[in-house]
Amino acid sequence: MGKNYWITDKPIQVNDCIAKVIRPKAGAIDTFIGTVREFTKGKRTLYLEYQAYAEMAEKKLAQIGDEINEKWQDTETAIVHRIGRLEISDIAVVIAVSTPHRNDAFEASRYAIERIKEIVPIWKKEHWEDGTKWIGDQKEKTSYQEKLPTEEEMSDD
Amino acid sequence: MGKNYWITDKPIQVNDCIAKVIRPKAGAIDTFIGTVREFTKGKRTLYLEYQAYAEMAEKKLAQIGDEINEKWQDTETAIVHRIGRLEISDIAVVIAVSTPHRNDAFEASRYAIERIKEIVPIWKKEHWEDGTKWIGDQKEKTSYQEKLPTEEEMSDD
Questions:
Q1: CB of A140 within 8 Å of any CB in chain B?
Q2: Torsion of CA A104, A105, A108, A114, to 10 degrees
Q3: Do B106 and A102 touch (CB under 8 A)?
Q4: Is residue B57 part of a domain?
Q5: What mean pLDDT comes out for the span A133-137?
Q6: How many domains is chain A partitioned into structurally?
Q7: Fewer CB within 10 Å: C terminus or N terminus of chain A?
Q8: How many CA atoms within 13 Å lie on the side-chain side of B108?
Q9: Enclosing domain of residue A24
Q10: What general EC class does the enzyme of this chain belong to (chains A, B) (predicted)?
Q11: Within a domain: residue A157?
Q12: Between chain A and chain B, how many beta carbons pairs sit less than 8 Å apart?
């Protein structure tokens, strides 16, 4: 089976993530898929580059799975995030959460994507027609024009 | 490409549904998957049987897609529902909704599953260890012990 939380530099197969959470006790699986969007506020993206501290990122993804288990009953979660260069419409992230009943699946999946953007050390570099920029924390409140934070700086939070 | 709303008696491939909604303008796809759960309130299900007025059901699914388009901006929806005999963990329904931003995808997908249970003429027959029952409307507020409503009766609502 392998692990439920992983970073990859290969194209993501959504089914790999879903297969990890299908089980007899579940009646609902919510799967959130983030894809590379061409236009943001009228500005055209040519492609994106994602970079991560992979080992730390996988630990943080697993932490999110643990948090979900504490907040909702009887969940199974799997999350995969891709890094490297991604073209328009490529899948950047897949979250799958299975639960006995559907309300929990929707809520937990939504929680997961917000938490990924808050705590997982993954950054994206936007490549536009007229330049590039590292988008800082995934909530996009900070931008790193020059360089990414070090792994040590990330460990502090 | 084929249609975005369909009833099938074959195993559902989740990717077939997702492929219909991936597009450059979308940054988020929420995919809801309903699977056959083994236990409901302590009672063990052996398998399910789904039956539908397929042509009417497909029209109603398309109507739900139209409703989503009216309620949220710039959506693309695909829905497939399986009929016939389904074993534990089999996929009964997949809904995929793509939108530019993720909040809309979550909300629209959730809306779709509630509406399916309200308006689409699909019924399930529970096969337990000690008997069977047709679960009536999909909200499970009515049960049909004897027979399903006729297609004409369904058309009235």
A1: no
A2: -140
A3: no
A4: yes
A5: 71
A6: 1
A7: N
A8: 32
A9: 5-134
A10: transferase
A11: no
A12: 97
